[in-house]
């Protein structure tokens, strides 16, 4: 019993560590566009997002129940399986954070859980219908829907604001962007914080601490909300840089449209119990907003790297989770080996990240290379209104003045 209680405590602590990485990995979802457009200062933005993530964690448990009751057969799961799943999710989060890629913490968690469950109990322990309807289909549909909505909203905002005073309109959109960013943070808490609640609840059921089909206890909701809020406040500046500056250049109108579209999609999915990737939704809305402005372009080289990371997340986390489960199955010493590996790998990734520090002071100072497609579009796209005359003035040299004949020397005095 003592050994079992120890492994259950290890699982809970590891789950909260994952929730912490989820927080700083996904801060960009709510605040990257707000920071890049200057609507909020970086530190103020992440503090606001942290508080609203904590509030959102208490609003619903539908997504938590999808994880704890629907995705895998909870009756055949051991705490070691959940620990192995968390190892795969944490390592994937840290690796993608290191290279600044906005991948899905949600899919990393579910991939690790699926891989560890299959390694322990076989494919029959994974509920394929839930995986398809509440995980895979939303993963494909949500970013497309959010992207189209953001593109249409951006075009509408520019059309309606065409005759408005430029400075007044920009100020109004920045204010609206702050409100929409807060809504995204709240929505993130209702969706992503619940995934850790579901994992901890699943571990408690596996350990016999709570009855099957139970909702998350209050202490689980509070601890998960605090962990993701703390991670959010730390700020995943590398991913904020990619989301805010690496995909496209956003103006306040675009930032407002992107965040409002993303928040709507996330809140609707949380209400339906879909285990949605907020990263996918926000990335799709940012790209849609980039395409919605006349002359705006998306850096498809950066987007392609993101798409590859999205496709690899589930299988990569599943593979690590399965390998970790195979080692933990050897006994307590195997669990210890996996724990040491996780700590050592996390420390190594952190040390590598210190070679190039990205924080609140320099998050907006980096420009992604444009790439071939973006450069080609920029060449053929018409310049914004008012720029043509300036460009012509700068490129057409004014005629050189005619040479002046030298003055004749004065006549000599007689």
Automatic annotation (TrEMBL):
In its UniProt entry, the species of origin is given as: Streptomyces humidus
Question: What are the GO BP annotations of this UniProt entry?
Answer: phosphate ion transmembrane transport
By sequence similarity, the record places it as follows: Belongs to the inorganic phosphate transporter (PiT) (TC 2.A.20) family.
Q: Could you state one GO cellular component term attached to this entry?
A: membrane
Q: Where in the cell is it found?
A: Membrane
Q: Where do transmembrane segments lie in this chain?
A: 44-61, 81-101, 107-128, 135-153, 219-240, 307-324, 330-350
Any matching Pfam family: PHO4
Protein name as it appears in the record: Phosphate transporter
Which GO molecular function terms does the record list? Answer: phosphate transmembrane transporter activity
Q: Which terms are listed as keywords in the entry?
A: Membrane, Phosphate transport, Transmembrane, Transmembrane helix, Transport
Q: How is it placed in the membrane, per its record? A: Multi-pass membrane protein
């Amino acid at each position: 019993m003592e050994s079992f209680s120890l492994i259950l405590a290890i699982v809970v602590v590891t789950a909260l560590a994952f929730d912490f990485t989820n927080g700083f990995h996904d801060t960009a979802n709510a605040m990257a566009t707000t920071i890049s457009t200057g609507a909020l200062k970086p530190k103020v933005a992440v503090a606001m997002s942290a508080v609203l993530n904590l509030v959102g964690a208490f609003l619903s448990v539908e997504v938590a129940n999808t994880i704890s009751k629907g995705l895998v057969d909870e009756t055949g799961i051991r705490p070691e399986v959940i620990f192995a799943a968390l190892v795969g999710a944490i390592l994937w989060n840290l690796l993608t954070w290191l290279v600044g890629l906005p991948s899905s913490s949600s899919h990393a968690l579910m991939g690790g859980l699926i891989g560890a469950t299959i390694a322990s109990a076989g494919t029959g322990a994974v509920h394929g219908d839930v995986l398809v309807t509440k995980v895979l289909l939303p993963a494909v549909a949500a970013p497309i829907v959010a992207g189209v909505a953001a593109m249409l909203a951006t075009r509408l905002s520019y059309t309606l604001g065409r005759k408005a005073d430029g400075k007044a309109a920009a100020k109004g959109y920045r204010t609206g962007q702050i409100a929409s960013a807060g809504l995204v943070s709240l929505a993130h808490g209702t969706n992503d914080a619940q995934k850790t609640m579901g994992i901890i609840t699943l571990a408690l059921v596996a350990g016999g601490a709570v009855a099957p089909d139970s909702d998350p206890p209050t202490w689980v909701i509070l601890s998960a909300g605090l962990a993701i809020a703390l991670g959010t406040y730390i700020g995943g500046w590398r991913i904020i840089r990619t989301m805010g500056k690496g995909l496209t250049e956003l103006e306040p109108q675009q930032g407002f449209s992107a965040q409002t579209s993303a928040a709507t999609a996330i809140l609707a999915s949380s209400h339906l119990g879909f285990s949605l990737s907020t990263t996918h939704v926000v990335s799709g809305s940012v790209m849609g907003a980039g395409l919605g402005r006349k002359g705006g372009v998306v850096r498809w080289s950066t987007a392609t790297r993101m798409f590859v990371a999205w496709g690899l997340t589930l299988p990569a986390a599943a593979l690590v989770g399965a390998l970790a489960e195979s080692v933990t199955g050897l006994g307590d010493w195997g669990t210890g080996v996996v724990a040491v590996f996780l700590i050592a790998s996390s420390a190594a990734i952190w040390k590598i990240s210190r070679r190039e520090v990205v924080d609140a002071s320099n998050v907006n100072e980096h420009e992604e290379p444009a790439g071939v497609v973006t450069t080609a579009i920029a060449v053929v796209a018409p310049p914004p209104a008012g720029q043509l005359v300036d460009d012509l003035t700068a490129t057409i040299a004014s005629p050189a003045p005619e040479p002046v004949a030298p003055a004749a020397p004065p006549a000599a005095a007689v």
